[in-house]
Design a protein that fits this description.
3-stranded antiparallel beta sheet, single chain, mainly beta, 274 residues
Length: 274
């Protein structure tokens, strides 16, 4: 069924008449060549949670026997909002009834647009998570004001080790499983002090700890809603960390991430180069 036929025909005093083509569809041959190309557009209606899907397919249509089809051109019809596949053929938006079958065959590129209403959550841009504690200590457990990840626990641990050159390595752990315990596998940060200290001021540290993590929002939303469909934008946003210790005297010690917590040097060089 298609509404891609004229609906403005006249006969005598009658106007706005429609055409109908009756025939044996077995005498229409449809050949498809090339690959079906599918492109997604998650941006146009991102705020509505709508993703556009465009499918392109090259086809060739030929009528085996034109005599198998007969047109009726004076039908009084009520319009119906039916989809019109033929209207999406390039160059065939408004084919005339006469001449449609006269050429026996035609080739076209079918462009199908689909709008999909995604029942899920979208994630775009960056997300920064900041946690802090005013009761941090190296000789026991303490709590941050909130977990570094969704659904995690707040119980945490801190380790500091001084290198021979005077710099300090810091390791922070947190109850990621929210089971009330902290293990070595639950490390949330590892960094190196920016300055070298002559004294062992941090060996028995007690004071404040502030940790900040910046990431792609998709990472946060996926962890927060593990059972829901999440669709994300593809821009590259590196994960970065910032850590600060403030001891009981007010002295401040900044750390830079190392190992898996180090900043992406290639990304930073690209930003500086711009």
């Amino acid at each position: 069924v298609s509404n891609n036929v004229p609906s403005n025909l006249t006969k005598g005093t009658a106007t706005n008449l429609s055409a109908v083509i009756y025939g044996n569809s077995a005498d229409i041959l449809v050949g498809m060549f090339g690959q079906l190309e599918i492109l997604l557009d998650p941006y146009s209606d991102f705020s509505k949670g709508t993703v556009g899907v465009r499918a392109l397919q090259s086809i060739d249509i030929v009528v085996r026997h034109a005599e198998s089809f007969a047109p009726l051109q004076d039908l009084i019809a009520q319009p119906r909002p039916l989809p019109t596949p033929v209207e999406m053929c390039q160059g065939m938006q408004n084919p005339r009834l006469l001449g449609f079958f006269d050429e026996i065959g035609f080739s076209a590129r079918v462009e199908l647009h689909i709008i999909v209403q995604m029942k899920g959550k979208g994630a775009s841009g960056s997300k920064t998570r900041s946690i802090k504690s005013t009761s941090a200590r190296v000789d026991g457990l303490f709590e941050f004001n909130k977990p570094i990840i969704p659904r995690g626990g707040k119980v945490s641990a801190l380790k500091l080790r001084q290198r021979k050159n005077g710099s300090y390595v810091i390791k922070l752990f947190q109850d990621l499983n929210n089971d009330g315990r902290v293990s070595k596998k639950e490390m949330i940060y590892k960094g190196l002090s920016r300055v070298k200290l002559e004294d062992d001021d941090l060996t028995d540290f007690k004071g404040q700890v502030r940790l900040e993590k910046s990431m792609h929002r998709c990472e946060w939303i996926t962890a927060k809603y593990p059972d829901e469909l999440i669709y994300c934008t593809l821009e590259y946003i590196p994960t970065t960390y910032s850590c600060l210790l403030v001891d009981h005297r007010g002295a401040r010690y900044k750390f830079e991430g190392i190992g898996g917590f180090a900043a992406d040097s290639n990304f930073l060089l690209g930003v500086i180069g711009e």
